[in-house]
Design a protein that fits this description.
Blueprint: H1 2-23, H2 25-37, H3 47-76, H4 79-93, H5 97-117, H6 121-136, H7 148-173
Helix pairs in contact: 1-2, 1-5, 1-6, 1-7, 3-4, 3-5, 3-6, 4-5, 5-6, 5-7
Length: 179
């Protein structure tokens, strides 16, 4: 269920980007330039960059945000508030509006998964899968931009897949909480 959830969240993130593109095309152009300058365009990937983006980055971010931030915030706040806080920090740490918005959405899901399992390894794997999909196949996913009905259908389907995979993940982790 984690690969399905990662793929569903990738679609949700891309739809967030699509909405931003309609509202503020200049913001998307700046974001595309930023990604290209960072070496994250498909033709310029290197092994150190892939290791940083797909392996080391997710591990560090999960330890800091879900492990430490969510862990400490949950001691003082109800889970929903602590999860909003850590997801907000996750969005802010990306330092740009586009990534910040979809990182916030992803952070909510990662925080929920961590809350359900109590084991930082599971959100690390989910985060790695998400970044791997984005890095290697994100440009090849079909979003139905050509026709509004396809766009709406795929958006609805991606939300259903994400929700279903999230519930399946939570169900499969039920009773396995280690923290």
């Amino acid at each position: 269920s984690l690969p399905m959830l990662a793929l569903g969240m990738q679609y949700v993130s891309n739809y967030i980007v699509s909405v931003i593109a309609v509202i503020s095309p200049n913001t998307i152009e700046d974001y595309a330039d930023l990604m290209e300058r960072a070496g994250l365009s498909t033709g310029t990937l290197s092994i150190p960059l892939v290791l940083a983006v797909v392996v080391l980055g997710p591990i560090a971010e999960e330890l800091a945000l879900r492990g430490v931030s969510l862990g400490y915030a949950s001691r003082a706040l109800p889970f929903w508030a602590a999860n909003l806080l850590q997801a907000g920090l996750f969005g802010l740490m990306h330092l740009n509006l586009v990534q910040g918005l979809y990182a916030f959405a992803l952070g909510l899901v990662l925080g929920y998964v961590y809350h359900k399992c109590g084991n930082i390894i599971i959100p690390c794997i989910l985060h790695m899968l998400y970044n791997g999909i984005s890095t290697f196949v994100g440009d090849h996913l079909f979003f139905g931009e050509e026709k509004p009905i396809f766009f709406a259908f795929i958006l609805f389907l991606s939300l259903c897949v994400s929700y279903g995979a999230l519930m399946l993940t939570a169900w499969s982790l039920k009773g396995k909480k280690t923290a």
